[in-house]
Write a structure and sequence with these properties.
Number of strands: 11
Number of domains: 1
Shape: globular
CATH class: Alpha Beta
CATH superfamily: Luciferase-like domain
Radius of gyration: 19 Å
Length: 343
């Protein structure tokens, strides 16, 4: 069984000092990367990452993921290159199509695979010190050039994806891929089929694309409470993944669909919390890793047996009862992963 690293997926919702402290504790617990969400109208992702960079020394740091609709790719390149300078070469860029803040910004999410392809071209060109002009289908840049020299022209770019076209594009262009909230072997088989198809089209070796699983996680002696803790996140994933559920071998529970229809299928907090109770346990485990340490260990073992190239598990910690987020990370790192890696 291959070695896999544990990372922290961090929604920037708590006070900034708490976010920084959690990142420091995650570094002390041996985490590999801190991926900070760029979601809704939460705290600014690059400000949070800068604060974490100044308090840590080893963690890789990056947005997981930002998007080229609400942030122009040239500004993304500026931000991530500045972060890389501040962090001493520890930055990594996560790009995706996003969508959760687009309505508030009046942004139209069009042709995500094309938008991301064009965004990667702009970002890579700017990081390489080039003067970039691109009149693409979605993205545009006219003689754009950074006014400073980036620390690394080859800063890693990961693509966050679940849809087939974006997965294929990631296989063609990305240094790595982040598959969000897919924790089943069937889900990963679907994802890898498309990633490897993109690799073949670009004549790339699939092993050149690093694989990161981004999953909600709850570890507790109370398995039922752990399942309940991640249910709203799973409800969100079911809602946003509707176009590909058939490829994942999933049929929406009728009760879940009824609740979401009442809410207009908007993945608001109110909607997903109301629909969460209609998600059965077996379906929760298709999207999240939750339960006792032994149950989580068995789940991860099954996933790594099916996807031996998986190199990073980025967990969103969901505390149960009196736990803190760092308790979930430590439990996952100490009680789940060592036994998996040693197996």
């Amino acid at each position: 069984m291959s070695e896999v690293r544990v990372s922290l997926a961090l929604p920037p919702e708590a006070p900034l000092a708490e976010l920084v402290q959690l990142a420091v504790e995650a570094e002390n617990a041996g985490c590999y990367t801190v991926w900070v969400n760029d979601d809704r109208l939460q705290k600014d992702v690059f400000t949070v990452l800068a604060a974490i960079a100044q308090a840590t020394g080893e963690l890789r740091l990056g947005p997981g993921v930002t998007n080229p609709y609400s942030r122009h790719p040239a500004l993304v390149a500026t931000a991530v290159a500045t972060l890389d300078e501040l962090a001493g070469g520890r930055a990594v860029l996560g790009l995706g199509a996003g969508g959760t803040n687009h309505r508030a910004l009046g942004v139209e999410r069009r042709a995500p695979a094309t938008a991301l392809r064009e965004a990667v071209m702009i970002v890579r060109g700017l990081l390489a010190g080039e003067r970039v002009t691109l009149d693409g289908r979605i993205m545009h840049a006219h003689e754009a050039q950074l006014d400073f020299t980036p620390r690394r022209p080859d800063l890693p770019i990961y693509i966050g994806a679940r849809g087939p076209k974006v997965l294929e594009m990631a296989g063609e262009l990305a240094d790595g891929i982040i598959v969000g909230n897919v924790a089943s072997t069937q889900g990963w088989s679907y994802a890898l089929d498309h990633v490897e198809g993109g690799c073949r089209r670009a004549e790339r070796n699939p092993t050149d694309v690093a694989l990161t699983a981004w999953v909600a996680c709850a570890v507790s002696d109370d398995a039922a409470a752990a399942i309940d803790a991640v249910r709203p996140m799973v409800a969100t994933s079911l809602t946003t993944s509707r176009p590909i559920l058939s490829e994942l071998g999933i049929q929406l529970p009728s009760g879940f669909a009824t609740v979401m229809e009442r809410h207009g299928w908007t993945p608001s907090r109110a909607a997903v919390h109301a629909a969460a109770a209609e998600v059965p346990v077996d379906l929760v485990r298709r999207f999240a890793i939750a339960g006792t340490a032994a149950e989580c260990r068995a789940h991860v073992e099954t996933l790594l047996d099916a996807v031996p190239r998986l190199s990073e598990l980025a967990i969103i910690p969901f505390p149960v009862s009196r736990q803190r987020p760092i308790d979930v990370i430590r439990s996952f790192s100490q009680d789940v992963m060592p036994a998996v890696v040693d197996a």
